[in-house]
Every structure is written in C-alpha cells, then in structure tokens.
Amino acid sequence: AAAALGLHAVSAIAAVRDVVVEHEQELGNLDAIAGDGDHGIGMRRGVDAAVAAARSTASNDVGASVHSILAAAGEAWSEKAGGTSGALWGTAVIAAGAALGNKDSYTSRDAAAAVEAFSSAITELGKAELGDKTMVDALLPFRDAFTAAISGGAPVGRALAVAAAAARSAAEQTAKLRPLKGRARPLAEKSVGHPDPGAVSFGLIVERLGRHIDA
Ligand code: ADP
Ligand code: MG
Ligand code: MG
Q: What separation in angstroms does the CA of 108 have from each of 7, 90, 105, 115, 204?
C-alpha cells in the first residue's frame, strides 16, 4: 500500500508539472510587468527537477514512502528553480511530505494537516502577510477553505476543488493590491491592475491537483 501511495505522489507532481508548462509563458509575462519576468521559467525548472527527483526516488526504492518522495522533490525544486518562489515551493513540499510521514493509508484529516504544514512553511520562511500581494494571498484562503471543507466531512477531492476555487478568485483579487514584498515592490505602481504571479500560479496548481485527485 505504501508503494502505491508513493506512485500517487509521483503522479500528482507530474500533474503539477503539466499545468506549470501550460502556463509558463503567461506566468513569465505577468512577472515581467513589475518583477523580473522569470516566474514561468523558474516554476518550470523547479517542477521539472521535482518530477525527476520524485521518479528516481520511486524507481530506486519500490517501497519509497510519500515522505521520502516529497522530500526529494522539494529539495530538487528549491535547488533548481532559483528565485523566491522556488525556495518557498521547495520548502513547502518538504514540509507537506514530513506532515504526511510514512503510512499505509491516509485520511482526509492527514490531508488537512499536510495543507496546514505547507502553508505554515511558506509564511514562516517568506514572512508575507495577507495583503502584501504574494502567493500568500491565495494560499491562506485556500488553506481556510480546505480545512473548513474537511471539517464539514467533504472528501479530499471535493475539498480541494472548493479550496482551489477560493484560491483562484483570491489570486484574481490581488490585481487591486500594491506589492509590499518581493521583487515587484520597487515597481509597485505598474503592478496595480495585474494579479500577483505567485498567487496565480498557486491557484492554477491547486485547481489542477483537485481535478487530478478527483479523476
Ligand atoms: P523572484 O521574485 O525571485 O524572481 P519568482 O518570480 O519565481 O521569484 O516568484 C515571484 C513570486 O514569489 C511573487 O509573485 C510572490 O507571489 C512570491 N513571493 C515573493 N516574495 C514572497 C514572500 N516573502 N512570501 C511569499 N511569497 C513571496
Ligand atoms: Mg521573478
Ligand atoms: Mg528572479
């Protein structure tokens, strides 16, 4: 059972890679408005490395746990992506994997704990707050909606779909904000009217994960 779960983790990361590749150009263009334009390529490099590391961990050890697969994926993501978002995503993937640990099966409560660990890793490392116009503006509404749905008895796929919708709409709403953290800050005025790239990529990724897990 543990090996099958490891393969689920690998295929989830591959689904994340697909959506990043599909939106790479768009994310780069968004980051170019007030940032340095590398959000698409950075996310692509990070998630490519994460998929490769996850696959090699799973093939070197047929019994590889979700924990070890996500640890390898997150480490590779941080290392290869470069940039702020790469460090944040890599650290958060590692934290989610550590929260999941190595079990034979997972409950929806375990999924909620993983989301909480992912979210805390990002806010602890990046220190951004709601309204700073970062991915945190999509992440916290996602975490809250996910936790509420799970507490209300929703299965993981349903909770993810509901929470992803919250993240997507929160990401769009960052358009009206002025960036207070990260590289976009010096060109804050230019950013107004456009959503934060990291919030948009986060929304797209969790939306795809929701569809992947429901499928
Ligand atoms: P870089 O800014 O190093 O070029 P990216 O372009 O890949 O990295 O990522 C930019 C995104 O990172 C921003 O759109 C924002 O969502 C996110 N970000 C920047 N700083 C922080 C922070 N302190 N906390 C959370 N997210 C942040
Ligand atoms: Mg950038
Ligand atoms: Mg950069």
A: 18, 23, 10, 11, 22
Distance of CA 109 to the CA centre of its chain: 19
Q: What is the pLDDT of residue 183?
A: 67
Which of 20, 27, 84 to mutate for ligand 1's pocket (most ligand atoms within 8 Å of CB)? 84
ipTM exceeding cut-off 0.90 for this assembly = yes
pLDDT, averaged in runs of 10, over the chain (215 residues): 81 98 98 95 98 97 93 98 96 98 93 98 97 97 98 96 98 93 74 96 97 83
Q: Ligand 1 atom 11: the closest Cα is on which residue?
A: 198
In 3D, which of 28, 139, 21 has the Cα closest to residue 83?
Answer: 28
**85 C-beta closer than 6 A to ligand 1:** yes
Task: Confirm or reject: Cβ of 74 under 6 Å from ligand 1.
Answer: no
DSSP 8-state code for residue 152? T
CB distance 138 to ligand 1 below 6 Å: no
Which ligand has its closest atom nearest to the C-alpha of 138? Answer: 1
